[in-house]
Write a structure and sequence with these properties.
There is one protein chain. By secondary structure, this protein is mainly β. It has helices spanning about 15-25, 105-115, and strands at about 30-35, 40-50, 50-55, 70-75, 80, 105, 120-125, 140-145, 150, 160-165, 170-175, 180-185, 190-200, 205, 215-220, 225-235, 235-240, 245-255, 255-265. The protein has two helices and 19 strands. A five-stranded antiparallel beta sheet has the order 4-10-7-8-6. Strand 2 and strand 3 (about 50-55) form a beta hairpin. The two termini are about 30 Å apart.
Length: about 280
């Protein structure tokens, strides 16, 4: 793998690209053939939620891996983008399912068409056939001019967002046990954390852990939307930590409460969680 420049030996196909990634121990979570002259030709790996997305760029391009230009990062599971509808410009290759917004029939098509269009900053796709679609066997992807993802309330959609190569902006999301939606974005310095769960009871997220015995740092939201940070014990409430989070908003829709928090990326103390500034997965419970 190289970060700047171009590969001295070409990879000739998407299958070869996926095989090369697997040989290096990378977990391939999505793959697509694209044609985008703003990106380097050939095999491109991009860190994403749970592993790597693989793209094979068929465009003839002089761009290198460190060239300016955006890369679509994803998929982020159980997330949607409800703002910045991309209009159905013919140059975007839209498939015309709706007269007022650009849609595509598959993530592979969306990766290629959105990747070529500067106005397209993101898209999200259904993972189930869309009711009322002309061809019920096809999925549906919606182009967006915004990268602001939100937790989905159902249907398990997936989002992809454009990330500039020199940007430190990062994002992650998770859907925990059919109870809590969680998403996180940060710019390298400050982070926004969105947590949605049942109203009237407490819910929380533990970071960098797969079980309670990992004794994680956790953010707990009570039944009224107040937030508290804790160092959890093994199947116990643990200790309350000095606050580093600020509640930005606290809203209730139906039976669900959504709380948006802000906090520094850096850990306030050794017991607080330092949010990663390099791409990769985060274990949460």
């Amino acid at each position: 793998i190289i970060i700047p420049g171009t590969c001295p030996k070409a990879v000739d196909s998407l299958d070869d690209c996926k095989a090369a990634a697997a040989d290096m121990g990378a977990t391939v979570v999505s793959s697509a053939s694209i044609s985008n002259a703003s990106l380097a030709s050939g095999c491109i790996l991009q860190p994403t939620d749970g592993g790597y997305s693989v793209a094979f760029n068929t465009a003839s391009s002089s761009a290198t891996c460190d060239s300016e230009g955006s890369t679509l990062v994803g998929p982020f599971n159980n997330s949607v983008i409800n703002e910045g509808v991309l209009p159905p410009d013919p140059s975007y290759g839209c498939t015309g399912e709706f007269p007022d917004q650009c849609t595509w029939d598959s993530p592979q098509q969306a990766l290629e068409e959105c990747g070529k269009a500067d106005a397209c900053r993101a898209f999200f796709c259904s993972t189930q056939p869309y009711v009322g679609k002309k061809d019920p066997d096809k999925l549906l992807c919606f182009g967006r001019a915004s990268t602001n993802t939100e937790p989905s309330t159902g249907g398990s959609p997936q989002s992809w967002v454009k990330q500039d190569p020199n940007s430190r902006d990062m994002a992650a999301s998770a859907y925990l046990g059919n109870l809590v939606n969680f998403s996180l974005t940060h710019n390298g310095t400050s982070a926004n954390i969105t947590m949605t769960g049942p109203d009237g009871v407490w819910y929380g997220v533990g970071f960098d852990a797969t079980r309670m015995s990992d004794l994680p740092y956790a953010i707990i939201v009570d039944g009224s939307g107040n937030a508290q940070e804790r160092k959890l014990a093994n199947h116990g409430p643990g200790d309350v930590l000095s606050p580093s989070v600020t509640v930005v908003s606290n809203t209730v829709t139906g039976s669900e409460r959504t709380v948006i928090l802000s906090r520094p990326v850096a850990a306030l103390t050794a017991d607080h969680y330092a949010i990663p500034t390099s791409p990769g997965g985060i274990n949460v419970i």
